[in-house]
Amino acid sequence: MGIGAVALTAIVAAIYRDVTRTYYFNDDFQWLQGARTFALVNVLHIERYNHFYRPIIEIYFFIGRRAFGCDAVSFHLASVAVHLCNTALLFLFARALTKSTMFAGLTAVLFAVQPGYVQAVVWVAAITDLLPATWYFLALWMYLRYLEGRGRLFYVISLAAFVACLLTHESSATLLPMLIALEALVLIEGHSGASVPLATRAKRYVPFALLLVAYLALEYVVNSRSYLITEGRYRLGWHAVTHGLDYLITLSMGAHNLAFRVLAVAGVVTLLAVGTARVRFFVAWILVTIVPSTFFIWDNSSRYLYLPAAGFAMLLAEGILAVRQVMASRLSPRAGQIAAGVLTVALAARFAVSASRLPKEFREWTRPYRRFVSAVRRANPAPLAGAIVYVDRENADGIPELYLDPAAEVASCGPDVHVVIH
Q1: What residues in the chain have per-residue pLDDT under 70?
Q2: How far apart are alpha carbons 138 and 257 in whole angstroms?
């Protein structure tokens, strides 16, 4: 297992090798700018927020800026490290769920190298998608241990991870349904005694539900002031169905056309109708975690596939082991092992090759910022607070106006400055 972990780490490092030459992009600068003046007491002042409430992300960038300054490479490597940590947590959850190290290993491999969510790892600001997964996987793993009778300490850890997830990203609202789905799966598969009364089981979820209701009320207050809501950029509508299907197609690396949308619907319906309880749980994981991101009116953003990719990896692992079992029963155990091995290598190789191209593409997106920051440093070698920096228009080409001042501040990792384009 240790050799496998080292090998998988090496593969992930190879896929994301271009992050060491990648700069910051868009929202990165705002998070880093905010980290300079962050104070823990400010998270209690809800009136400060008009666009999401994510205090743990604020704390992450505060600690990162104190540890790394404004060094982009360090933040990129931290994201890759969090991704590897998440892969390990998913492995532990998958092994605890199935009591199979092989299943867990397949899940880890197929999750770590997927191309669908690469943006979540290569974009520093997309730590908002990586860190929630950390708490998500931990909460589910600890809750599973509790359901298996390991003691209330595991319940407390799961609840703490649930709180951390709520304070990290809005996708955490899907965690409670998945905890309930997990207990249903455990009951069906007989890993937990069915003699516990329903009322007792329901009481377990009261703290989770109360925390979720309080969090949703807070988010309602904050997000009612957000431009996403006031300008109608995040809303209910039939566009969510199209977005959801396109997310499923991206996960499976299909073509974004009508034929693949029909196949996606048929596949989901079939798996839910005739699949095992475990297969239904994995499909539910994918669908439930995709839902929150489908209501944006703009094009899909691949970073939102990070959590769904975990369910997809487990579904693929289940499929590979099913193929092995069929081949072993019809031919021989060795034939089953060979078939599973070939299928795993083929899928992992296809994923890894596709994923390895995407970090380089993202690196190109950051080039305008690197050029702009170099121009700011030349124009303002000894930055003073409130200084006005003049930059030629060609050096600011391709950069939205709202990111000019934050990027200039990060350029020196010092005080606020104001950029004037001429």
Answers
A1: 1, 191-195
A2: 36
- Whether residue 65 is found in the same domain as residue 147: yes
- What per-residue confidence (pLDDT) applies to 192? 59
Exposure string for 283-301, b = 16+ CB within 10 A, e = fewer: bbbbbbbbbbbbbbeeebb
Domain range spanning residue 320? 2-372
57/123 same-domain check: yes
What share of the chain has pLDDT > 70, as a percent?
98
Residue 275: which residues within 8 A CB-CB, separation 6 or more?
A: 283
Could you give the CA distance from residue 380 to residue 377 in angstroms, rounded to a whole number? 5
Residues 175 and 307 in one domain: yes
pLDDT given for residue 194 in this prediction: 60
Q: What is the pLDDT of residue 211?
A: 95
State the Cα–Cα distance between residues 324 and 320, nearest whole angstrom: 6
Residue 175: how many CA atoms within 13 Å on its side-chain side?
A: 36
Residue 391 parent element (H or E): strand 387-391
Residues 353 and 385 both lie in one domain: no
Task: Say yes or no: 328 and 265 in one domain.
Answer: yes
Task: Give the pLDDT score at 110.
Answer: 96
Q: Extract the tokens encoding 182.
A: 């997990």
pLDDT digits (tens, 9 = 90+) for 160-178: 999 999 999 988 999 999 9
Residues 123 and 31 in one domain: yes
Q: What's the pLDDT score for residue 166?
A: 95
Nearest to 352 by CA among 2, 5, 10: 10
As a dihedral over the C-alpha atoms of residue 306, residue 56, residue 90, residue 203, rounded to 10 degrees, the angle is -110
Residue 373 CA to residue 385 CA, distance in Å, equals 17
pTM: 0.93
Same domain, 395 and 356: no
How many domains are there within the chain?
Answer: 2
